[in-house]
Amino acid sequence: MAADSTVTSSAPAPGTECADTASTAYRAALQVIESVEPRIAAATRKELADQRDSLKLIASENYASPAVLLTMGSWLSDKYAEGTVGHRFYAGCQNVDTVESVAAEHARELFGAPYAYVQPHSGIDANLVAYWAILASRVEAPSLAEAGARHVNDLSEKDWEELRHKLGNQRLLGMSLDAGGHLTHGFRPNISGKMFSQHSYGTDPDSGLLDYDAVAAAAREFKPLILVAGYSAYPRRINFATMREIADEVGATLMVDMAHFAGLVAGKVFTGNDDPVPHAHVTTTTTHKSLRGPRGGLVLAQQEYADAVDKGCPMVLGGPLPHVMAAKAVALAEARQPAFRVYAQRIAENAKALADGFLRRGARLVTGGTDNHIVLLDVTSFGLTGRQAESALLEAGVVTNRNSIPADPNGAWYTSGIRFGTPALTTRGFGVAEFDRVAELVVDVLTNTQPEGSSKARYRLADGTAERVRAAAAELLAANPLYPGLAL
Ligand code: PLP
Questions:
Q1: Homologous superfamily of 339-479
Q2: How confident is the model at residue 463 (pLDDT cuts 50, 70, 90)?
Q3: Which residues sit with their C-beta closer than 6 Å to ligand 1?
Q4: Catalytic site residue from 56, 88, 237, 289
Q5: Is the pLDDT of residue 2 over 80?
Q6: Which residue from 59, 170, 195, 452 has the fewest beta carbons nearer than 10 Å?
């Protein structure tokens, strides 16, 4: 660490210390794996070493607790359990029923939601469940009534033909990709862009902020069935009460995808109008980003959508993953502890420190700052593309991802932005002083990187930069170890 920094580390996030029992469990597991396929044991060990040795600033990643990780490695994985609690298509699901009920109870209590569905295998799956639930509630059910039928089995072939036509003609309004929206919000590489006729809202060209009047105008003109709010790369909060007013005015269902900021909602950093759950008809999330659980998704819904969401499997999901639902229950139980609120608060404070550190050093940020866990740096001010900046940072041990910025001159592949997120390093114990130092190291790398020729990908890092930054990062990382106590 440089002589000027007197960085004192804060405590690691609760539950990430590795007790002797967890070390023993991992050692035993790796020995067993090694006896069957040594390459997998080696890759697993190496992944831990790599994660320990790099500054992980990818906004969508985190480090789950040993309790969450260990929960996934059990025979719960061996059980088929299509259906819902108490209504399974397989016998012998009593223990999976317990697992799913406990996970759903924690989700309802944590987020104050009337209903929670914990089966989705990922965030994309959660969104697909939500879309079909809304279509079933808003389009299919009225069509059944119109056809004089009470059940889909009562529909004639002609009724089906009409229903298919209606289902295939619905409109969705979501945030544009370059403003920070996600592929699942109606964009072509995802099925949502083929299922729906899509229209998007962007951000104000000067401030980079969401313009609610423009969203309302787009909603009035386009009249969507579904208004989607939520993002992957927008560094600001959204007023969900206003989004609900817009949805109500045009008769749309408000669906919020809080995949990125669910940890800030769980930790009560986002309350009132910043908390989507009371305002949205349906809220979806991943469980592995700021929420710090296993990879997976979940859907929260107002009661009127509960029955339709419940049909996620087998409508669009394969059989549930009981071992992952168990790990979701453990992670949600962790997130209900008071210490998680401290963790969530620190995620937001650290993002501010990182943003301020960039701004003080002359960098340009999309929207001029942050009030969530994301900082979006415009690297054109360093004369670089996102691709060049991402590669140079990686060479110096700083793991980030390139990202489009609004009206990106370099397109979606090379991009002009780098997205940073604070949840993972906050889990390790980084505080505001460490994040200011991270800003200094990132600026050091980018000011010492030159594009090579006219290439948008090739770059040259000045001699000694990678070594200098890696050494400084190693000091920060050593002072804030990942899974302290875990020795393999
Ligand atoms: N929704 C948003 C807003 C996301 O950012 C992501 C992933 O990055 C997803 C959904 C998809 O999550 P998953 O990768 O678990 O399918």
A1: Aspartate Aminotransferase, domain 1 (3.90.1150.10)
A2: very high
A3: 60, 122-124, 182, 184, 230, 232, 257, 259-260, 286, 297
A4: 289
A5: no
A6: 452
Question: For the range 477-480, what are the long-range contacts, defined as Cβ-Cβ under 8 Å and sequence gap of 24 or more?
Answer: 477/52, 477/53, 477/54, 477/55, 477/428, 479/1, 479/7, 479/9, 480/9, 480/12, 480/425, 480/428, 480/429, 480/430, 480/434
Segment 330-350 shows an average pLDDT of 98
Domain 77-335 has CATH 3.40.50.1970: no
Question: What separation in Å is there between the alpha carbon of 478 and the centre of ligand 1?
Answer: 31
**Domain locations in the chain as residue ranges:** 77-335, 339-479
- 17 confidence band (pLDDT: 50, 70, 90): confident
Would you give the DSSP letter of residue 304? H
Query: What DSSP string describes 353-395?
Result: HHHHHHHHTT-EEGGGS-SSSEEEEEGGGGT--HHHHHHHHHH
Q: Report the alpha-carbon distance of residue 187 to residue 366 in Å, rounded.
A: 22
Which of 58, 62, 124, 261 is the best mutation target for the ligand 1 pocket, counting ligand atoms within 8 Å of the beta carbon and taking the most?
124
More confident residue, 441 or 168: 441
Question: For position 10, what pLDDT does the model report?
Answer: 66
Q: How far is 121 from 125, CA to CA, in rounded Å?
A: 6
Give the model's pLDDT for residue 430. 97
Q: Is the dihedral of CA 350, 352, 358, 364 positive or negative?
A: positive
Q: Give the tokens for residue 484.
A: 């302290």
- What are the pLDDT digits (tens) for 89-142? 999 999 999 999 999 999 999 999 999 999 999 999 999 999 999 999 999 989
Of the residues 17, 34, 53, 82, which is catalytic? 82
Q: Is 310 in the active site?
A: no
Q: How high does pLDDT run on average in the chain?
A: 94
Count of beta carbons in the 10 Å neighbourhood of residue 86: 10
